[in-house]
Write a structure and sequence with these properties.
It contains 13 helices and twelve strands. With 328 residues, the protein is of the alpha/beta class. A seven-stranded parallel β-sheet has the order 8-7-6-9-10-11-12, sandwiched between helices. A five-stranded parallel β-sheet has the order 2-1-3-4-5. β10, α11 (244-252) and β11 (257-260) form a beta-alpha-beta unit. α5 packs across α7. The longest helix is centred in the middle third of the chain and has 17 residues, at 103-119. It starts with a strand and ends with a helix.
Length: 328
């Protein structure tokens, strides 16, 4: 069986995974380069491995310049930020990604944000290293996660992993998802609800869905007004899904708690009011920073083997699924 000619933009970081890929693919690794350079390189290749870049890399022009292209693989997670994935799918090209490597790490990061917010661990630490010798009685009684109602907004890979990690703690898990049926909700042991119901009923609301044109500012002042006293809102999805001005106004009242890993503008501006809001935990878009994320190369090796042996890769996108993924 002839090996498939593959261009890897960037180095493959796992020698063991690369050895598995080499069984089926003749891989040429090049340094990360801009779209114009990729267009010059890609002509004879049947596949391409795409790293994260902030600019479009696999454009329509690149795809048109590669008449033999059959496989596009994102090594980072999603595809929409730098691959014209829908155009590729319309051309009959298989598009895969490494989202499976992100789900558990991001779920555990989310759990960490929830626990630190409820127990105020980050605030105690900050006080003790910034001059307060013993802030033992500075804050009122904290809360634990056990027995609280948790709502998860978005039920993709990451949302599903968050549901799994929260179920042993929560009294009930609510899910907001346009694609969850009542039958599947019963099978998962969750309750399907509308967005406003989640904000009105849950003690902890976690946003994990995809950033698309239809989800821009899906959460704003009406939802924050519905939150129960002392409820916690967590965003590990995308900042543009939340009206940040409304969030800052809600946080400034001190009625609720907020934990944010993502923001409308990144890096978060130095003068952002979020930096001085009470009851706020901020982290710099690092929910996918665990070393286990590097299992992405093993994920790609699995997908490549499936593709090369005539099977459908587990992460292979459809046009419908691609449209639900975050655009940035």
């Amino acid at each position: 069986m002839a090996r498939i000619k593959m261009l890897s933009i960037g180095r493959i970081g796992d020698p063991e995974a690369k050895a598995r890929m080499d069984k089926y693919f003749d891989i040429t690794e090049v340094e990360v380069c801009p779209e114009a350079e990729v267009r010059k390189l890609i002509g004879e290749y049947e596949g391409v491995i795409v790293p994260y870049t902030s600019e479009m890399l696999i454009s329509r022009a690149v795809i048109d310049a590669a008449p033999k292209l059959r496989l596009i693989a994102s090594s980072y997670g999603g595809t929409r930020q730098n691959i014209e994935d829908i155009y590729a799918l319309e051309r009959g090209i298989t598009v895969v990604h490494t989202g499976a490597s992100r789900a558990r790490p991001m779920a555990e990061y989310t759990l960490g944000m929830v626990l630190s917010s409820l127990l105020r661990l980050h605030e105690y630490h900050h006080d003790m290293v910034s001059g307060e010798a013993w802030p033992r009685f500075k804050y009122p009684r904290t809360r634990i996660l056990s027995g609280r109602r948790v709502a998860v907004v978005g039920l993709g890979r990451i949302g599903s992993a968050i549901v799994d990690i929260m179920k042993p703690f929560a009294s009930e898990v609510l899910v907001v998802s346009n694609h969850l049926t009542e039958e599947k909700a019963a099978e998962l042991g969750v309750r399907k609800v509308e967005l406003n119901t989640a904000f009105a009923e849950a003690d902890i609301i976690i946003l994990s869905g995809g950033n698309t044109a239809s989800t821009f500012h899906m959460i704003g002042a009406p939802q924050f007004a519905l939150m129960r006293d002392q409820a916690l809102f967590v965003n590990i999805a995308r900042g543009k899904m939340v009206d940040e001005k409304a969030l800052a106004a809600a946080a400034a009242t001190g009625r609720n708690f907020f934990a944010l890993d993502v923001f409308e503008t990144e890096p978060l501006p130095a003068d952002s009011p979020l930096r001085s809001c009470p009851n706020m935990l901020l982290t710099p878009h690092r929910a996918n920073n665990s070393i286990e994320f590097e299992e992405r190369w093993s994920c790609l090796a699995d997908e490549f083997e499936a593709f090369a042996t005539g099977k459908v890769p587990e992460s292979a996108l459809t046009i419908e699924r691609a449209r639900l993924m975050s655009e940035s």
